[in-house]
Amino acid sequence: MTTISLFDLQTFLRQVVALNFPEALWVRCEIAQLSKSRGHVYLDLVEKAETENEPIAQASAAIWQSTLKRLQSKLGATNLNPLLQAGVEVLLRVKVEYHERYGLKLVVEDIDPSYTLGKLEQRRRQLYEQLVAQGLMGKNAQIPLRPVLQRIAIISSATAAGYQDFLQHLGENAYGYAFKTTFFAAAVQGAQVEVEVLKQLRAVQRQATRFDAVALIRGGGAKLDLAGFDSLALCQAIADFPLPVFTGIGHDVDETLVDLVAHSALKTPTAVADFLIQHNLHFESQLAELSQYLRYVTAESIHVALLQLAASVQALQTAPVQLLDRQKDYLQRFAAELPLALRYQQREQWQRLEQMEQICQLLSIEGTLQRGFSLTLKAGKPIASAQQARQGDVLDIQLKDGTLRSKVE
To answer: Where is the OB-fold nucleic acid binding domain (predicted)?
Structure first.
């Protein structure tokens, strides 16, 4: 049986690797973990299956201090640091090495930021389509703003320059408006953005009645620094948030998905502060216009009332005289017409009396007898029906020229 020592095996493997990988390779992978020690950066790299989130390959890599300085000089620290974050997909130029004691290691020589940006943009488009499908775009923007925005919940990093700019701009506004701000600390770049911002959004929501709006702000930085704000969970939380959310994440060109679902997306923290100040100024201007209108309406009403009062005073001065003149004219006409009216009425009354006298004469007993009628009396009392007479009764029949006596048989 042939045997070989472990060292010889490892030496053989080192030679195999050196012969088969004489030059550096560009490798696509994801940074699973990252640590730093003595100026060096150590990476755990993985590749995950497309349909599952489980690694199908894994390797260790290192960026030596000299290489790190060269990359920082080439790309700039603000562009390199966002690439070296857990969960970021990267394209690395690596030298494959094998050590008898430490095994296989990939030594990073270069990094291509355009690959990572492309992956982020691809992922961003996919998330955007999900947000549209879920109806979250513009949802937070439908929340009506209160007339005055004064109680502001700020989600930011205490060390962010944008946070200090925001506070200074609010505090030194030219109109003397007072703002009450409450700070909620969260990472605004790196892998912890989603977790920490979500945590602070929940903290604000638990006391939502204390605030008028939320300001999510950070200072300027590289485009890759914004990757944490292209988060589905973060966008869902902001879209459904009960308060208007304003973003000022410090980039003049690029928009994140968080910007798209927020109530209002401003470019910088200072722009958010300006928005709040101008909103309150608009309300104050409306109050000033209303006050001016009320003064005008009040003055106009007083003017009209004074005119009416003057007219009433004048009317009170002239109306009694005019009334007395009219009454005097009436009395004079009445006095002139009264004798004529009395004579006319007297003549009418005499005519009526004469008519009544004629009627009375026609309706009297004598008048009735003169017209050919007779009056039958029984015991001196008139009877009108044959039923009132009995056999043997003596009746007197009165005619116009005398009386006849008869007996009922």
So the answer is: 5-112
